[in-house]
Amino acid sequence: MSLLAKAQKPDSNGRIQHVTPENAGWRYVGFDAYLLKKGDTLRLNSGDKELCLVLVAGLASVKTRNAEFPSIGRRMSPFERIPPYSVYVPHNDEVEVVAESDLELAVCNAPSQGNLPARLIAPGDVGVEQRGKGHNKRLVHNILPDDKPADSLLVVEVYTNEGDTSSYPSHKHDQEDSENETYLEETYYHRFDPEPGFALQRVYTDDRSLDEAMAPYNRDVVTVPRGYHPVATIAGYNNYYLNVMAGPVRLWKFTWEKDHAWVNSDQYPRG
């Protein structure tokens, strides 16, 4: 099964991506992406999942059974590089999204049995950090990190400039009951500026029983069931991706691939 899910034409609900544990061959992470027109309404039932709705681009009003978040959104493109508005929705809830402009909406989901209330995650609630150095730099927006309330979901968005790498040095988080790692499945929802761009992403394990390289284009999704998963951008095209992670323990704990860990050291960049 390919780890690359190509963007589809919008269905009757505007959905262009649909990743489930069943079609991904794993246990926890689900991801949908929608392109809605101004005035469109999307209704969802969270069932036994918690949701994190991320306004990738555009404006909307969001309502759940017990909460309303009218007229949210600020950026009209993810490449404005300002944190998004997001909404956390608990399990066994209903949500209605009304697009107040053309809207690109990501719906992240994972199993939940908790009792957290629906809440707005405003731009001021999002942790912003710069990581890396040399040609391994990226801007990170921590939307739903492991120190903020949720049952399973971890959600983050990353910007990588043309010609740079990210999710690098190669790292992995695929071991359960480990002192050094947590088991976290992961999706990458890719965007490019300008839109015809692409990146190169490799997913591989130490023993190479999994070793797949792919070229995600605009709005494609890469699924990472296990192993290392670095991304390399192409000259002329800036890259944005939205990561969704979930597993049995809600903690982001990973190990570096030994061969490339030196890129974190004072040996890099050289000269």
From TrEMBL:
UniProt entry tagged with the keyword Glycoprotein: no
Keyword set includes Acetylation: no
Annotated keywords: Isomerase
Protein name as annotated: 5-deoxy-glucuronate isomerase
Family annotation (Pfam families): KduI (PF04962)
Gene source species: Candidatus Pantoea multigeneris
EC number: 5.3.1.30
MF terms (GO), sorted A to Z: 5-deoxy-D-glucuronate isomerase activity
SUPFAM superfamilies named in the record: RmlC-like cupins
